[in-house]
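Class, study these two lines:
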Amino acid sequence: MHSQQCLLFVPRYMTWAEAQRNCQSRGGQLASVYSASQAYEIQKEVQHAGRGYGQFWVGGHNTPANLSWSWSDYMGVSAFAEFCRGQEAKHKHHCLQITFGEGKAGCLDDMKCETKLPSICGSLIM
């Protein structure tokens, strides 16, 4: 268990929508990243699964009509939202992934939602 959510690494490569449905079938959502400590907890979960680096789907998304990012649990992306250098305002794509490795310690970046990546599910702890 982690500070605000239980996390599960899913190694299967899926689109963002497929990954979200998979997490929902397990009783959760794609993970939210509310703080730097949660990004670190996600990294620990990924490392525990034997994957210390790479790109992974998390629950951030937006729409062409509303470019404000929100998480799958419908909470807004906080000021934390540590985007990868130079990626903050691009909004070219509508789904968020988290990147670890090559000097990137849990930064967020938008990506085509149809890209297939492993994912991190999260279930909020109440």
Remarks:
- The chain has one domain: 5-124.
- The mean pLDDT is 82.
- Residues 83 and 89 are 9 Å apart (CA to CA).
- The helical segments are 16-25, 36-48.
